[in-house]
Design a protein that fits this description.
Layout lengths: L3 E7 L3 H12 L4 E4 L25 H14 L4 E2 L5 E4 L4 E5 L2 E10 L20 E2 L2 H4 L7 E6 L3 H10 L4 E6 L11 E3 L4 E6 L3 E6 L3 E3 L2 E5 L5 H4 L5 E2 L2 E2 L12 E3 L10 H23 L2
Parallel strand pairs: 1-2, 1-6, 2-3, 6-17, 7-14, 8-9, 8-14, 9-10
Antiparallel strand pairs: 4-5, 5-6, 11-12, 12-13, 15-16
Helix pairs in contact: 1-6
Length: 288
């Protein structure tokens, strides 16, 4: 299958890149989801002195070294947002807009999620709350929809949904000009809570209320627990053992998303361990 891989890696920071390199060295087919510019936090570092072998290096220089390394191994970054991951038993289904990728194992290396869920967001996930507007828009044909956008990319999804919905509200969580269809109502307000009975009925804002049948929350990234249903968390981080195994078979995690200290070298080392564990898991399954 064209979209099926041995290992899918979510995140293009030091942990994700390290996992990708080490999985590729061991001849596994991989797909790496993330930002083609690699780690946005990394390039902000003015000087790094605690990364072994690279003292007095800037974040920009280290990022360039990372880029050269993955290019050497012919590793490409798929610049797409993974909206949901489902464990299907012997493989994982990764939902990316209208495309479904499959992988026998996954490595989560998404870093830290800084945007806290809106009250009610997790409660109504799948019951009126979604993270992929282009995926679920047909469910809201001739209905009232609200899109909470955290970046410019959300505008394209909102425009698409507006072609199907009877009414669409767009709540931008960023400043700038908005490239939206004329039938979309822009609401500059702060979302406070999503409420309803068995499904979404209303969005409470700081200064008003919106009656809506669905709410799409379009962030740069979502928390691992929302990304992978059933994933065990501990104090805001993914719970893993020393081999980077999570509570879900075939699912591994590495980097800032599994806990402190938030350091590049730690993340890279954990990415290595996660990749080796995923390789061992795959090889073990192939013996039978």
């Amino acid at each position: 299958m064209e979209n099926r891989y041995d290992i899918a890696i979510i995140g293009s920071g030091p942990a994700g890149l390290s996992a990708a390199i080490n999985a590729k060295i061991r001849n596994k087919s991989i797909i790496l989801f993330g930002n083609k510019d690699l780690s946005s936090k990394l390039i902000k570092a003015s000087k790094i002195n605690n990364y072994l072998g690279f003292h007095d290096i800037t974040g920009e220089q280290l990022k360039d070294n990372f880029q050269n390394h993955i290019e050497k191994f012919d590793i490409n970054v798929t610049n797409e947002r993974v909206n949901e991951i489902y464990s299907m038993g012997d493989y994982f289904a990764l939902m990316v807009n209208e495309i479904c990728y499959e992988a026998k194992s996954i490595v989560i290396a998404t870093g830290i999620e800084y945007t806290k869920p809106i009250s009610g967001e997790e409660e109504f996930l799948g019951r009126g709350v979604g993270y992929c507007a282009t995926c679920d828009a047909p469910l809201y044909k001739d209905r009232i929809v609200t899109v909470i956008g955290y970046n410019k990319e959300a505008e394209e999804e909102a425009n698409y949904v507006s072609e199907l919905a009877s009414k669409l509200y767009y709540i931008p969580m960023y400043e700038g000009n908005y490239n939206l269809r004329k039938n979309i109502e822009v609401v500059k307000d702060k979302p406070i809570e999503i409420i309803g009975d068995n499904k979404v009925e209303k969005l409470i804002l700081k200064s008003k209320e919106i009656y809506t049948d669905g709410v799409f929350v379009l962030k740069d990234s979502i928390s691992p627990a929302q990304l992978v249903p059933g994933l065990l968390m501990e104090e805001g981080h993914i719970k893993v053992d020393r081999s980077m195994k999570t509570n879900i078979k075939g699912c591994f995690a590495a980097g800032d998303c599994i806990g402190k200290p938030y350091q590049y070298m730690k993340a890279a080392g954990e990415g290595l361990v996660a990749a080796l564990s995923a390789v061992s898991y795959l090889d073990s399954n192939n013996r039978y």
